[in-house]
Fold this protein.
Amino acid sequence: MSIWLVALLALFAALAHGKPGYGPGEQDWGYVDVRPGAHMFYWLYYTTANVSSYTERPLAIWLQGGPGASSTGYGNFEELGPVDLYGDWRSWTWVKDMNVLFIDNPVGSGFSYVDNTAYYTATNKEIALDLVELMKGFYTLHPEFEEVPLHIFCESYGGKMALKVNELLEKTPLKVGVFSGGLDLICATPGTVNWIAKLDWSRRDEYLAAPRNAITVDRILEGYQKTGGNFTMFWINRSGHMAPADNPAAMSHVLREFTSFG
């Protein structure tokens, strides 16, 4: 009896960091109560990289735009998750390189929900506060990620944070990056270039004077990148508003280049 108990405990310990889902690798998912009556859903994919422990690779958070589009739906199955909408394994998935956390933010998007419509968020500040509570709950459930480097990626409506980019550059050591699809008609690249050029930060001239270097993947020109200080802009060729879906090869390069892992 004791032998069976030890065997079961060993099995549970081996599986403690994840559970099997559809597709390669292990996953975890669940809810965090970000406020009374407000429940936010997350879906975590553990990296399938050839490493001894998943904690050797960073954690990338993906936040969808909209606001109100589902990260666990669109971002996951249309852009960078391990499985596409047809149930096929995606060759350029970000999960091959690092752990990926999709969050249905704000509440009401995807699988996130509220008990009463009065609990929906109405401002960017409220959305951000809910996200902070989600991460507090996530780290409580997955404390091993507290020491893992964290990178936050967002698309489309995430550009609303542009107004605070200069504060991040001046007041923190954080690396900040912006990617823009060259065929994007919603957030056109010339407009992105212009607002970056007008950012009020001490190393702006260094950035503006920096060269724009080519991004090549398998000897194909996939875009360009320009770095000054702790800021980088990426121009992504052959892509529109949803760059990871349109040019996954280029965006996989951006992921590896920007996070500087392994």
User: Anything to note?
Assistant: The chain has a mean pLDDT of 86. The chain is about 30% helix and 25% strand.
